[in-house]
């Protein structure tokens, strides 16, 4: 109403206040019914906040499933979101003043790319899943680059604003993390070094192997023909043709 009023006055130059309609999915309770006061099956969010914290509730709600689909509430599963945030918190104890993030740097840049795209597409559940993957990677390391960790907190902030703000302050920053610029990913660092090559014999998949992305077609032919499982399938026969589709598959015709 107010937007239409402002449009009529000429204060804004577009008719509709929203660019698109994004419907929200339904949350169901244990009984399978839509969670509603009418059915008396609602969960009081204040109770969840008191037990686990507001950020845990936010993260769990977004992680439950696709934004626009029906999902089932589970009070037992919410502990997973809590443990994820606890890992993110503990990682601050591993920080070193290093510009190189080691094994976590490439994963960080892939994470930034995916989360940036997922937020635009309202895929919050898969964004949090990627954050969990990165947090598990941090948890496996004894030391962690401060630069990498700070970038991680920035992309965590939209999902867990309170814990992110506190972590940011503990790292010595005087301004809010929510005023920080969104991190950009380095295209060079998100390139995969290996990929899964599908090996077919007469069009049927017989094996899958990891190979380096920079192998030439000739190297791929030689590599595939040396694989033990492929040798068994060939049973001493010479291939009539070896078809190589770089980055995808090798098909051996016998």
- How many helical stretches? 10
The residue-averaged pLDDT reads 91
Radius of gyration: 25 Å
SSE-based structural type: alpha/beta
Beta-strand percent range: 5-15%
Shape: extended
Provide the low-confidence segments as ranges.
Answer: none
Distance between the termini: 71 Å
Strand order of the largest sheet: 6-5-8-7
Note the run of SSEs as H and E: HEHHEHEHHEHHEEHHEE
Helix content: 40-55%
Major pleated sheet = 4 strands, mixed
Give the strand tally.
8
Structure notes:
There is one protein chain. The chain is of the alpha/beta class and 254 residues long. It has helices at 2-9, 45-52, 54-63, 78-90, 103-120, 124-140, 146-156, 161-170, 217-225, 228-234, and strands at residues 27-28, 71-72, 95-96, 144-145, 194-201, 204-212, 241-245, 249-253. The longest helix is centred in the middle third of the chain and has 18 residues, at 103-120. The radius of gyration is 25 Å and the shape is extended.
Tags for this entry?
single chain, 254 residues, alpha/beta, four-stranded mixed sheet, two-stranded parallel sheet, 10 helices, 44% helix, extended
Secondary structure topology:
Blueprint: H1 2-9, E1 27-28, H2 45-52, H3 54-63, E2 71-72, H4 78-90, E3 95-96, H5 103-120, H6 124-140, E4 144-145, H7 146-156, H8 161-170, E5 194-201, E6 204-212, H9 217-225, H10 228-234, E7 241-245, E8 249-253
Parallel strand pairs: 1-2, 3-4, 5-8
Antiparallel strand pairs: 5-6, 7-8
What is shown here, in short?
This protein has 254 residues and is α/β, with parallel strands linked by helices.
